[in-house]
Amino acid sequence: MSDKEDTPLTDTGFDSDARKRKSKSPSTFASSESKRVKSELDDLDSDDIAKQYKRFLNSPKFNLNSEELFCICRKPDHGSLMISCDGCEEWFHTKCMKIDNQHLGLLDRFYCKFCHWKGKGVTRWNRKCRRPLCWKAARTKEESKYCSDECGKSFLRLKLTGSLHFSKEDINFVIHYCDTHANLEQLGLKFPELEVVANQDLDKLPPLVKDSIEENDLQQTKLRAEIDILLKKRDYVLLIKKRNETINEMLTELVGDNQETEKSKKGKKKLTRPKKIDLCCFDKNVSKDIDDPKSVPDLAGAASQTSPSVYNLFKEEIDGVLLAYQAEDHSNNSICLQDRRKCLRHNGWYSLLQDKTWKKLNELKASLETLKLARENALREYSISIYEQDENTQERPTPELLAQPIEGQN
Prior knowledge:
Helix 9 runs parallel beside helix 12 (315-326) and helix 9 (207-266) packs antiparallel against helix 13 (349-390). The strands form two sheets. The chain has a two-stranded antiparallel ribbon. It has a two-stranded antiparallel ribbon with strand order 3-4. Mean pLDDT is 78; it is low at 1-39 and 392-410. The protein is built from 13 helices and four strands. The protein starts with 15 loop residues before the first helix and ends in a 20-residue tail after the last helix. By secondary structure, it is mainly α. The protein has helices at 16-20, 33-41, 46-58, 113-117, 149-161, 168-177, 181-186, 195-198, 207-266, 284-291, 310-313, 315-326, 349-390; strands spanning 82-84, 91-93, 107-109, 124-125. The protein folds into three domains: 16-142, Zinc/RING finger domain, C3HC4 (zinc finger) (Herpes Virus-1, 2-Layer Sandwich); 150-186, no CATH class; 202-267 and 281-410.
């Protein structure tokens, strides 16, 4: 590619209209060949190109004044900028080829539409320098987005000083405040709390904020106590499940031993597998302990022991169930001794008890998180109000409503 005109090009700014003329100007980045081909030949089919090429070849080379004719317009050189085709070496006006003059610095190879139609090649563009007012090719071989180091510095300087949100003073502060890149990445991730807030010095806070904080802390303390009790109840419910499994296992072994003893007395040698016992084991005392919000089961802390024996924890209850089952006395026992599959009254009682415990525990935890967030937001709003006062802006009201009523509390 070569230029017929020696006049240097002047820089022009981004033009909104130029961005819309996709068929008249190259992309600011390297375009794919298929898109470029479509923009040049979108309105022409093969027959039209063939007819135009035939007229181009048959057209005169000189006019009546013996001036050499160029381009598809067949006009002489009157000073308009022209480029040479790398395929046929004919000269074409940039205007006729729909190429913006300021984009010429981005051309790598130029092929006219006739050479493209004949398959000699396609026009290729270099990546544009990232700086908006520069129309030179970027140094892609050096893996740079800029045509020169000066352009790179100018672009970054424009990005910093031309921001609507940062002034030169802000940038100067950041440069001196962040001595490392890691500190720069962490800048702004954490809210700059006031010293009185960071140290949790409530006595130095305004009375309204202090009272709200103290009320919030009091409610959090109550919630944590309830959560602690409920966690013990949850562990107790898990122990009850193990107790019931132990009862059924021991009864199954006991019944099996009795069957073997009876068969040995009758002289029968055939052994059969003992029937598995699966009792309901609903315990009304357990249900009362779980439903009472202030009740803590006596064995609530047993689950935290290193290796507790379920039988030792519930020895009195388990022995009572074994004796009552053998005596077929179901009247004076707090534990239901009916077959689990036949006991319609207590159907699914353990699952309901477990679900109730977990649901209440999740509700209390959610309420505690709400109080924590309210406390944090109120202190944050107080810090913001102080910052705004320092900037001589309109004073914001002191935040209120730190303590929020929790359902079920007085």
